[in-house]
Amino acid sequence: MFPQTLLLLLTTLPLALSARHKKAILLEKSGGFHVAGSVLTNPQNRNMTLHCDHGYMEYFIPWKPRATSLVMWHSAHMQVWQNRWDGGIGFKDLFLSRDYPVFLWDAPRLGRANWGCVPYYYQPSYWDQTNFVGWQFGERWPVWHEGVQFPTENKEAWNQATRSRYIEFDTHENMLLQSHAAAVAADSGKLGESVVILTNSVAGLRGQMTAVMSNTTNVKGIVAYESYGYVYPDNANITEVKGGFGPVVVPLEDFKKLTKVKIQFVWGDYRKPNDTWLVQCRRAVNLINLYGGDASMLFLAEEAGLKGSTHSAMADLDNDKVAEQLDKFLRKHKLDRHASWKWF
Ligand SMILES: *[C@@H]1O[C@H](CO)[C@@H](O)[C@H](O)[C@H]1NC(C)=O
Ligand SMILES: *[C@@H]1O[C@H](CO)[C@@H](O)[C@H](O)[C@H]1NC(C)=O
Ligand SMILES: *[C@@H]1O[C@H](CO)[C@@H](O)[C@H](O)[C@H]1NC(C)=O
Ligand SMILES: *[C@@H]1O[C@H](CO)[C@@H](O)[C@H](O)[C@H]1NC(C)=O
User: Fold this and answer.
1) Ligand 1 in reach of 18 Cβ (< 6 A)
2) pLDDT of the chain along its 344 residues, tens only?
3) Which domain does 212 fall in, by range?
4) Within-domain flag for 261
5) SS3 for 40?
């Protein structure tokens, strides 16, 4: 952006006090780096190696950053953090303009970190209609939910949404690998000493596991939008399922790390009360709080009056209102103060 444009935006600011996102975004720096990973040696030729299974972190540091960084994590489409469904301003820019350092996380094998240590192959299959239902756009293709926060008449919006997907490697091994790499990132200090992990969908399970695997207190919060998959302690009579979606069972002492983190599970508008993920979520929240934690569920429709939220509320047409709910969370837990140090 040219300096002139910045000035223009700044001078029109008082006219647009309600439109907070119109504030210019001024960055100290942006860039990216790789995190964790392995090095394989060719057994036939010890001189040949492969650096693989790392994660990739893209960062944006505001000019006057707050102390808490926001890590944005989706296991199947980063795009939901970058724009609204209609191409409008996404959480990335909404929170940069609020001065939060933003980190976009491609976990190992995903997105720009797809240089894996193991072989994989992509099997095309007819996913569009599954996406439509899975992302809570409607009961069945192509019948949209009444009042859904998606521009249903905008064919390009649907085209963009369903194309934004990539393979997500939902195996137990990948879940552990990805969570561990994120924990290494959080522990490295490169994200600061106060990190809030924002997740969508099955990244929620990975976010919880990141806090469990981390060896520092840098992870301060997790806000999980429609989390698929939960972590439980080994004394709760819960059977682990060794897939990509949990439940994951860990020793009680490890589980207790979740009690040190402020956790909010955010839910859209279209889940039945007996939805598997809601049932698992309640159980996880109760257990975290039983051991002295601070976990809660936020139902956007019932508690915040936001109707029509999809599986990815951060990309919904009313995402500015969804963002205000995150503001509240950050303020409540005093995670909104400005930094008194230089990043990097
Ligand atoms: C590996 O490198 C060493 C030292 O450069 C060399 O002596 C050796 O021949 C190389 N081995 C192979 C299999 O290329
Ligand atoms: C935390 O420490 C344990 C024990 O040393 C280690 O196995 C694990 O890899 C560490 N976690 C991270 C994220 O580095
Ligand atoms: C543990 O779970 C199993 C199967 O879900 C159930 O049959 C059993 O009664 C449970 N035990 C306890 C102590 O809750
Ligand atoms: C939830 O309840 C509905 C209606 O009673 C039923 O059809 C559905 O199978 C239930 N789902 C689960 C996951 O139990």
Assistant:
1) no
2) 444 444 444 444 444 444 554 689 999 999 999 999 999 999 999 999 999 999 999 999 999 999 999 999 998 899 999 999 999 999 999 999 999 999 999 999 999 999 999 999 899 999 999 999 999 999 999 999 999 999 999 999 999 999 999 999 999 999 999 999 999 999 999 999 999 999 999 999 999 999 999 999 999 999 999 999 999 999 999 999 999 999 999 999 999 999 999 999 999 999 999 999 999 999 999 999 999 999 999 999 999 999 999 999 999 999 999 999 999 999 999 999 998 866 65
3) 62-97+121-332
4) yes
5) strand
Considering the domain boundaries, does residue 51 fall inside one?
no
List of residues 6+ apart from 236 with CB closer than 8 A: 249, 283, 287
Indicate if ligand 2 lies below 6 Å from the C-beta of 212.
no
Determine if ligand 2 sits within 6 Å of the CB of residue 187: yes
- CB of 44 within 6 A of ligand 1: the answer is no
- CB-based contacts of 314: which residues, under 8 Å, 6+ apart? 80, 81, 90, 91, 198, 200, 225, 322, 323
Nearby residues of 43 by Cβ (< 8 Å), 6 or more positions away: none
What is the distance in A from the centroid of ligand 2 to the CA of 215?
Answer: 6
CA of 303 to the centre of ligand 4 (A): 23
For residue 58 and ligand 2, the question of a CB distance below 6 A is answered with no
Å from CA of 13 to ligand 4 middle: 50
Look at the chain and report how many structural domains it folds into. Answer: 1
CATH code of the domain containing 168: 3.40.50.1820
| Calpha distance 89→111 (Å, rounded) | 21
Note the ligand closest to the C-alpha atom of 278: 4
* Atom number of ligand 1 nearest to Cα 45: 13
- Its pTM stands at 0.92
* Residue 161 belongs to some domain of the structure: yes
Residue 290 backbone class (left: φ over 0; alpha: ψ -120 to 50; beta: rest): alpha
Q: Is residue 310 part of a domain?
A: yes
